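Box 3.1. Reading complex inputs
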Amino acid sequence: MSENRLIYLPLGGAGEIGMNCYVYGYGKPGAERLIVVDMGVTFPDMDTTPGVDIIFADITWLKENRNRIEALFITHAHEDHVGAVGHTFETLGVPIYARAFTANIARGKLAEYNVEGKAVRTVSKWPETVNAGPFTVGFLPISHSIPESSALVIDTPAGRVIHTGDFKLDTTPLVGEAWDPKLWEEVSKPGVKALICDSTNVFSPHAGRSETTVGPAVEKLVSEAKNMVVATTFASNVARVKTLAEAGDRAGRSICLLGRAMRRMIEASVETGVLTGFPKVIGPEDVSHLPRENVMLLVTGSQGERRAASAQLSRGKYNGIELKEGDLFLFSSKTIPGNEREVIRIMNQLSEKGVDIVDDSMGDYHVSGHANRPDLETVQNIVNPQVVIPMHGEHRHLREHVRLAEKNRRAGVLAVNGMMVDLSGNEPRVVEYVETGRTYLDGSVQIGAMDGIVRDRIRMALNGHVVVTVILDEQDEPLGEPWCDLMGLPEKGRSNAPLVDVLEEDLSQFLGRAGDKVRTDDDKLEEGLRRVARQTSLNEIGKKPEVTVVVSRLS
Amino acid sequence: MSENRLIYLPLGGAGEIGMNCYVYGYGKPGAERLIVVDMGVTFPDMDTTPGVDIIFADITWLKENRNRIEALFITHAHEDHVGAVGHTFETLGVPIYARAFTANIARGKLAEYNVEGKAVRTVSKWPETVNAGPFTVGFLPISHSIPESSALVIDTPAGRVIHTGDFKLDTTPLVGEAWDPKLWEEVSKPGVKALICDSTNVFSPHAGRSETTVGPAVEKLVSEAKNMVVATTFASNVARVKTLAEAGDRAGRSICLLGRAMRRMIEASVETGVLTGFPKVIGPEDVSHLPRENVMLLVTGSQGERRAASAQLSRGKYNGIELKEGDLFLFSSKTIPGNEREVIRIMNQLSEKGVDIVDDSMGDYHVSGHANRPDLETVQNIVNPQVVIPMHGEHRHLREHVRLAEKNRRAGVLAVNGMMVDLSGNEPRVVEYVETGRTYLDGSVQIGAMDGIVRDRIRMALNGHVVVTVILDEQDEPLGEPWCDLMGLPEKGRSNAPLVDVLEEDLSQFLGRAGDKVRTDDDKLEEGLRRVARQTSLNEIGKKPEVTVVVSRLS
């Protein structure tokens, strides 16, 4: 009979930034009791996922092992850690544990699916713990760019594991708990089997800066501004929002929050007690009653999101407020790779309005929420684990993080999504490859990344679409001519006649030539018509469109 | 009778980076004789231009004024300055002037349209000049990231104008002519009416670095590498390619050029004499015969282009060559904003192969080809023009560049695409707004950005597509049921039945209910069927697809 074992299995986040979802198990091989850490989303883009609303890890493996799951733990309230709790609840339906602020946000996600708030159980910080099957789990405070971010201290019969979640080392984070090396030393003292560690900033060579370093630059900027000031940052970065608001307040400006997420996050922070002393805010309807130099707007959309307040303000009015020549717009943020085009578009639209733009490249207006390379080394030295397993990062980050560990003579394991690692023995090893992937929320339907649905959309976007319609009578003779409807294709091509006419002519000739064998066989007929439509298009316009053939038989 | 005037009219490049196309005119208002400077392209993206091959300025205005155009001058051989000479030649057909290297590249573009090479006339550098109607134009050497980049000295009866083209201030550019402040002083001495000046790097606060600063870091990296080395940069950056090749050569490595553009650019450089002493190269078929540590590949695709050598090497074999664990891949380049996702994808694929990646963030492996803020000031001080008109930049760059000029007590004019500026008097002023836009090369057809074709493709990509087919008999009664073909849509929705069945059922019911007025009217019938298809889809899958309705009448 085989021994119990302790396993680690990333389903999302290990090989990408975003979509975090990790599994730990303890028990007999194949019958381990399981806990899940985080259930996050990642965001679609036009290149690979047009029309998709949101993306999260394929949880087929969890669904198949539903009876073995004890609980889901959420480390913090960023979308890439909590965003999919609502979308997956019907499938999993396990108890969810989180600290107060995170629980507040998670309950909001569940409410969208009419799931009651009690599905989420609020846990206090370490040393409080939760028992979940063979696991005892505690929330160990750590600083990050959102309140109450926590590492998980996961105790198992095979030893203690620390799962860092996302973190930075900030002893003065302004809101939420500071990095407390003494506490971490104490928790690590009994010995730590594995440190599962955030990797996103492993290529940043210098130690990270504290949140407090942002205030002075912002304060100077805002106090010197002559007209309206607008600042954008992630709404969930409550400390930053507070810094911005206080700078405005001290400069004699009334603060107005714009954007649903901005108001939601501040509300959640106040409700759960993580935020106090936030300056009084005014509603958008009050802005027009004040001189422009007495107003500061704090707005969503630092990543250029089309529907967020920043984008709307750059295009025109939002909530009745319009920016004007001489106003100042501060990006207290860093553009996430991939969002450059959208952010730059907003900057240029603001420039056209005569608005002055300030961003992180022009001063100390932003700090990262993640641990840089030296910070990772600091944590590894304090925790002193038997093995470091990098998580939350692209392949290049995980690989570099393993190298960093090895440079410091620690064991490191590169485990990407789907690799099940057995942590029980002295040498961790990959014991199984689980099929993983991505699930797309598309409108109200969850579809698989490999279903071909999005692939077809991409093809239509690249190639255009032709619908060919043919009617055959009872004797399989064409009734009238075939005809075509085009979408996303030029009207005219090489021969300077309408493309639709050239296509119909060629299809008609094909039908005239086609023998009984083709005319009586739907597949052959469709295949032939499709081939002609594509070839004629290639000749005329230099590209082969997608073709839908509709054959109607009166028989 | 009105006076002659000197006009400046940007058609592309003023309000964007890329797609440069500028017009100068001299003569009676509305009858000025014209010259065109540059005819470049910009690149499509999936967000806004799916399926498009290349983009250039809408030249409708030039076509309408074809008889007034004397010539087209090309400042240098980058795609965003020369890329559209072939695509527009049939429309414009004016003489093209360029220096030898640029002319070589331009002739290649024309050859794709079977236009003879003599359409391009080779001009030597300043003090040689070309007469073009009222203009006398000379090519004033200036350093940039491609050989023989030149500013244009444009003499007119209303005074001298200098159009910088793209440039940097490099006194040691390695290949091509150095920045020569003495020469520029001399040319500026008679007085310069207007300086039309590159703006892309106006936000870069420090003086630019010389091309020579790249060599030492590359040489150290390559000499210490243990296995195969691959380096990518823009093929047209001949100096950089030479630096990379020499570093490889000195480290005892054979050089192999991969990618069509890489070979094309080196050939053109050798043919026109701008490049000498390039190390001997080997063909891809010889690579396998050599030890990996004796090979260095110089490859295209630094911006992550899907079909270029870098991307293909990251995915698998290219020309029989495959990268392996421990190889080194150097990005001697900067990722252009908007290309991050593609470049990062390649980096991660290389990381999966165990290839070590080095980029500009890790050392001095790249320098920009454009003048930074202090460099712009240097040129403005030397030229000392009556007015600075920023070109080649997004709106935010042009605006900042005007501010920079004004800070130094110079007049600056913010003129974006379509603004015609009269430079004749002492105060330049906008005298006309010309309609401008973008032309898409789509397969072999040129379409307008506003034609709605690409918009329809984007809609299909976001929403999916439904084809509804209905046949009506001679009495306008439905013959059989309506049916649907779906593309890019989920198979099942809310009711867990196939979406196509639910749609056909609802459409059938609609047809059954529809009165004579609807059934006999194609527009009403189509409108009704479309509405039902969209509403049913919304209920089932939470999104409204694009719908094509095909009504066939047997009458």
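In summary: Chain B has three domains: 5-206+368-448, 211-358, 464-553.
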